[in-house]
Each structure stands twice: as structure tokens, then as C-alpha cells.
Amino acid sequence: MNQQQEYDPRFEEDHLLEHAYDGIQEYDNPLPRWWVWLFWVTIGFAPLYVLFYHFGPGPSIHEQYDAEMVAFYDTQAEQLLALGDIDENLLVGLMDDSSMLGTGKKIFQDKCATCHGMFGEGGIGPNLTDDYWLHGAQLEDVYRTIREGVVEKGMLAWERQLRPAQLLAVTAHVGTLLGSEPPNPKPPQGTQVERQPPPPKSEAVETAGEGEGATDEAVPATAEETST
Predict the structure, then answer these.
(1) Is residue 206's pLDDT more than 50?
(2) What is the C-alpha separation between 122 and 128, in angstroms, rounded?
(3) Domains identified in the chain and CATH numbers
(4) pTM here?
């Protein structure tokens, strides 16, 4: 008798709830256990995802995109370095690339701010925001200084620690610091030199073409030579 009393056919067939809406009744069937557990797992996973990717070390979509762009520029930079063709036009163009500037800013704050200040205002190293320069004002000069370093002044040759595209990114970021007027700037050092705009691309191509077969006397002075 006890077994007959405990038996309930509702557990083996569909169970209609007593209430109805517009003549429609709904079943009261339990969801599969695996589905219920999966549902609770997703609820528990959601806040962990938000904490990791939005407030923790997880890379954001923008950071992943920037990393892909840096990898792309790495390939280009290696090809250009093989041709010896990192010029002013290329470096100025990178100042309009938000991915390169974002990457360059992060590298600068991580590796350069100790000496040059978080905003390029100067510290142990010179102020990078004014018109006074120790090693040339053109971006080609900045790129060379970052790449080769200034060992006698304690500045590392960053080409040994940064990838080609990262060197370009830092150069582009430093290029944007000129005239930014940071707080507490360091007094000027070096010689006052105005940064010159790059030559038009067509002119740069013609100059490069003439230089291939020309003598040293016929080759126009580079930005590096004019700034020293």
C-alpha cells in the first residue's frame, strides 16, 4: 500500500499546471539536470570573465587588435630594415596610427618613463616635449637614438630588447610629445632645433633613385646630417 500511495503518475507523464492564460495551459516539467548545472556554471563564469578581462590582466579587444597590428608592422619593419629604408615619411605616418601610438605609449611608460618622465617631461634624461635636442630633432634621429642608445649617458640600446615594430611605435609616440606642455618640465638641454616636415613622398622616391648610382658628393644631406 505504501508503494501505491507514493507512486504518482505525474512524474512519468506531462503535468499541466492548474492556471491558464487566454486558454493556454503550461506544463510543469523539470529541466534536465545537465542543463540546469550548465546554466549555473555560465552564471558563475560571467562575473569571473568581467573581472579578468575588464578589471584584471586579461587583454581587451583593443589590446588584442593592437598586438596584431604590431605583429603586422614587425614584418614590415624587418623588410624595411633589410633595405635600410626607415625614413622620416614612414615615422611621421605612424603618428596617425592609433594602434602604434597605443603600443608606443605603453612601452614608453614601462621602459622610458623612469628617465624621461611619464609624460616626457624629463627627469634623469632630457625633456622630450620642447624644441631643444641633444641628438637631433627629426624622427629619424629619435629612432636612431632609441635603437642604438646613448651608452655614455646610461641609455640602453633598445634594439636588443624591443622588436622592430616596437622601436617604431616608441618613436611615433615620442614624436607626439613635442609641444605637449607636460607638468613640471625639465629645463631645456642641448640645442634649439625646429623639427622639419618630411619631404613629399614623390621627392623622397626620386632622391632615393638618384642616390643609387650617385657619388657621395651628389647625394643630398640626410635629416640626421642637417640636425647635427
Answers:
(1) no
(2) 7
(3) 9-55 (no CATH), 63-227 (1.10.760.10)
(4) 0.60
